[in-house]
Amino acid sequence: MNYQVDEKGYYGVFGGAYIPEMLYPNIKELREKYLEFIEDPKFQEEYVMLLKDYVGRPSPLFLAERLSKKYGAKIYLKREDLNHTGAHKINNTVGQILVAERLGKKRIIAETGAGQHGVATATVCALKGLECIVYMGAVDIERQAPNVARMKMMGATVIPATSGSQTLKDATNEALRDWINHPTDTHYILGSVVGPHPYPDMVARFQSIISEETKWQLQEKTGKSTPDYVLACVGGGSNAMGMFYHFLNDEDVKLIAVEAAGKGVDSGESAATTLLGKEGVLHGSRSLVMQTEDGQVVEPYSISAGLDYPGIGPQHAHLFTSRRALYVSITDDEAMQAGMELSKLEGIIPAIETAHALAYLDKMKFKEDDVVVVCLSGRGDKDLDTYMKYFGL
Amino acid sequence: MNRINQLFEQKKQSLLSIYFTAGYPDLNSTLDIAEALEKAGADFLEIGIPYSDPLADGPVIQHSSLTAINNGMTIKVLFEQLKELRSRVTIPVLLMGYFNPLLQYGVEHFCSSCKEVGVDGMIIPDLPMYEYEDLYEEYFSLNEIRNVFLITPQTSDERIHKIDELSNGFIYLLSSSSTTGKDLNVSDQTENYFSRIKNMQLKNPTMIGFGISDHTSFAKASEYADGAIVGTAFVKLLEKDGFMEQIPEFIKGLKG
Ligand SMILES: Cc1ncc(COP(=O)(O)O)c(C=O)c1O
């Protein structure tokens, strides 16, 4: 089975580029050039150097002993939280800023939910001296205030998206509108494996470093490069895609993607796209989308801003329908408890997004020698306010 | 013969097309507005199907879409309303809508519903050309629905020729690459672009839209194309009290 994009930009029936004509020239340019750029040895040299010396890669693969003991398996944490800026998002922005440079673009735009992608974009723009504009839902600006301040410190302009639910979906709309209005000088650094082709493939390639490293790290530590289970949380799906990428063809590795159930999948306040969504088009690709019968996109809900999105990337939609990966969901409460648990057991405070993946451990049945890798997509500093309110700290 | 083709064939002067959102400002205002526009002298109409995430639209049309959705407008409701279309309106009517609601309704079903109520064409800004060609064109032709494509100043000549080949109603020239509701800013560059298209001798007629808001911009656009399309400026009028009475004046003001 082929899990990668075909020459028309599709994963099975999902993907494509459903964009207005105004975006066509930019998307076409990107489609024609991204592989050539990425495969260029000069690009690779700079990309690898930046990942090493600036981001701090390889990120450690850590055997979490107390967590392992609790769940009765060997649980490794892939420490993307230790990357510069605190999440996996920077793997992608480092790659895309090099693409933007080669395209000769002077102005960078991005959307952000939790603010991690916005921060990672502002960071690489500061590094390269490029103008940076980040769209962020007004609700998210409120709940992720430290990240807003970080973006500003690095010289980015943060523009609130005030339409709709004022979260990630709306920020993405505003970024796409900005791109329509700046057709020649701007590159849009999309932050997940969503959007029109070639974004899902390009972002997945930049995030695939996560599983590339995991493979040799596991080999070193366990004598075997493949685990039994791989877990990651899914908003748009970039950390999960990066975590799955090099295991896709190892069919005996079970891939588990954890979505946000919000207040419960039947509560009307949820972001569990594979359960609640159906085939549709959002932000330029055909995928699974949470929507009304009439095709209006519904406003999702999750306590975690990074998972508060009514779609998933087209490659995930393909992995879901082909059953290559298992899609499950975790509620706000379960995630918050799991975040607290990891803090207490391992001295690692995870992002609330990441806590969703951790919470699923409790629902699994392991054999003692099962090897499990959880993508620790980000650290919890940005979420302290939410943790404090939730636990009355 | 399709009303759109007929209109362009018999055209004596520059054509004016007006866009407005179905179900805005009131759920049932759609046909009253259409009828008033024809009486006032609009040459054809584009009725927008409201969508929750209208990527190509600025704040005014976003607001009208959201209000219309909240008013209860859906594709089903719209086709119910349009059952009366041809007893009240004779000029060509296109529907303009984003792809997702159409996909949920079913594209084939959508095209046959259009034919049933007497809709003549469609504008679907986010439906890619090759998808249209591969999967949907036959439903459009079968039901004689004209699909209208957009062109921007950045669209290559090669692509324009391809669009011309695929089109059989008219081609929609965007005055600039922008979302709806920005003022037309006619620079040398814009005029060069308009002339470039004019000189390409396309087989399809052309209409210029985006940023046309008054007689000056309408007249300017008419120098280069078969006419112009007004959207945001008209939707703004609908926000005012007593807009029905002001429609004749508005159209007269545009045509001069
Ligand atoms: C720490 C962290 N994990 C996960 C996500 C979700 O994004 P994705 O599904 O693209 O990995 C985010 C998004 O902001 C994040 O900050």
From TrEMBL, chain A:
Identify the keywords attached in UniProt to this record, alphabetized.
Amino-acid biosynthesis, Aromatic amino acid biosynthesis, Lyase, Pyridoxal phosphate, Tryptophan biosynthesis
Q: Which HAMAP family match?
A: Trp_synth_beta
- In UniProt terms, what function does this protein have? The beta subunit is responsible for the synthesis of L-tryptophan from indole and L-serine.
What cofactor does this protein call for?
A: pyridoxal 5'-phosphate
UniProt pathway: Amino-acid biosynthesis; L-tryptophan biosynthesis; L-tryptophan from chorismate: step 5/5
GO cellular component: a single term: cytoplasm
Please state every residue range assigned to the domain named Tryptophan synthase beta chain-like PALP.
56-378
Any GO molecular function: tryptophan synthase activity
* Designated gene of the protein: trpB
What is the protein named?
Answer: Tryptophan synthase beta chain
Q: Does the keyword Amino-acid biosynthesis apply?
A: yes
EC code: 4.2.1.20
Q: Which residues carry this modification: N6-(pyridoxal phosphate)lysine?
A: K89
Instruction: Name the SUPFAM superfamilies on file.
Output: Tryptophan synthase beta subunit-like PLP-dependent enzymes
What is the top-level taxon of the source organism?
Bacteria
The family annotation for this protein states: Belongs to the TrpB family.
Reaction it catalyzes = (1S,2R)-1-C-(indol-3-yl)glycerol 3-phosphate + L-serine = D-glyceraldehyde 3-phosphate + L-tryptophan + H2O
Q: How does it assemble?
A: Tetramer of two alpha and two beta chains.
UniProtKB/TrEMBL annotation, chain B:
- Kindly indicate whether the keyword Metal-binding belongs to this entry: no
Annotated Gene Ontology cellular components are:
cytosol
Q: Which PANTHER family match?
A: TRYPTOPHAN SYNTHASE ALPHA CHAIN, CHLOROPLASTIC (PTHR43406:SF1), TRYPTOPHAN SYNTHASE, ALPHA CHAIN (PTHR43406)
Known role: The alpha subunit is responsible for the aldol cleavage of indoleglycerol phosphate to indole and glyceraldehyde 3-phosphate.
Q: Subunit structure, briefly?
A: Tetramer of two alpha and two beta chains.
Top-rank EC class of the record's enzyme: lyase
Reaction(s) catalysed by this chain, per the record, are:
(1S,2R)-1-C-(indol-3-yl)glycerol 3-phosphate + L-serine = D-glyceraldehyde 3-phosphate + L-tryptophan + H2O
Q: Which organism is it from?
A: Arcticibacter svalbardensis MN12-7
What the entry lists under Pfam families is as follows:
Trp_syntA (PF00290)
The active site lies at E46 (proton acceptor), D57 (proton acceptor)
Top-level taxon of origin:
Bacteria
Pathway where it operates: Amino-acid biosynthesis; L-tryptophan biosynthesis; L-tryptophan from chorismate: step 5/5
Q: What is this protein called?
A: Tryptophan synthase alpha chain
> By its UniProt entry, which InterPro entries does this protein fall under?
Aldolase_TIM, RibuloseP-bd_barrel, Trp_synthase_alpha_AS, Trp_synthase_suA
Task: Give the similarity note.
Answer: Belongs to the TrpA family.
Q: Keywords, A to Z?
A: Amino-acid biosynthesis, Aromatic amino acid biosynthesis, Lyase, Tryptophan biosynthesis
EC number(s) for this protein?
A: 4.2.1.20
- Provide the GO MF annotations for this entry: tryptophan synthase activity
Gene symbol of the encoding locus: trpA
